[in-house]
Amino acid sequence: MTRKWLLIIGASTVAAWFVAPPLGEELGYAFESWRMALLVLAGTTVYALVHTLPRPKEPAFRPRSSQTPVHSPAVADGVGLWEQRLRAARKDPERFDLIVRQRLREITADRLEHRRGLRLEQARDLLGEELHTLLTTPVTTVPSEAELARMITRIEEI
């Protein structure tokens, strides 16, 4: 049952407290006060429960690969997007810094937090000096393809 319906039930119960006795008297029916009190108590309880229930939380972190089948078009699009980003940033350190390094930093920080409970600043030993430096300081030279592949493999191992 949704929150909306629980609110409607609670409001209807409270409204019944005020509407039922006069209507019952016109029809020749006498309401027992304990039943009305019980009805109002039930409505108030429902209303209070609805307002104290926590809102649904965000789903737990899941890597993209577990959400999308490997052979789906979405994976191919994602790979193509990364190829374009890397090609565009291959010789331009500023572009690499803005496009590639920032995204690698976000991915690594998420993995460290969710899998190890660490912040990026605390993980120097775990990441290794080369990868930690790449992620925490602006780059002056773009890493070679082999260096980048080695660093990405290290991120995947976290």
Can you describe what's shown?
- This protein has 158 residues and is mainly α.
- The chain folds into 2 domains: 3-52; 72-157, no CATH class.
- Helix content is 73%, strand content 0%.
- It has helices at 3-27, 33-52, 64-67, 73-89, 93-116, 124-127, 129-136, 145-157.
- Helix 4 (73-89) crosses helix 5.
- The model has no long low-confidence stretch (mean pLDDT 77).
- Keywords: Membrane, Transmembrane, Transmembrane helix.
- The chain crosses the membrane at residues 34-54.
Which descriptors would you attach to this protein?
mainly alpha; single chain; 158 residues; 2 domains
- The helix content, as a percent range, equals over 70%
How many DSSP H or I helices?
8
Query: What is the overall silhouette?
Result: rod-shaped
User: Which class do the helix and strand fractions yield?
Assistant: mainly alpha
Count of individual domains: 2
Beta-strand portion reads under 5%
Mean pLDDT: 77
* Succession of helices and strands: HHHHHHHH
State the low-pLDDT regions, or none: none
Question: Would you summarize the structure shown here?
Answer:
The chain has 158 residues and is an all-alpha fold.
Write the layout of secondary structure elements.
Layout: H1 3-27, H2 33-52, H3 64-67, H4 73-89, H5 93-116, H6 124-127, H7 129-136, H8 145-157
Transmembrane segments: 34-54
Keywords: Membrane, Transmembrane, Transmembrane helix
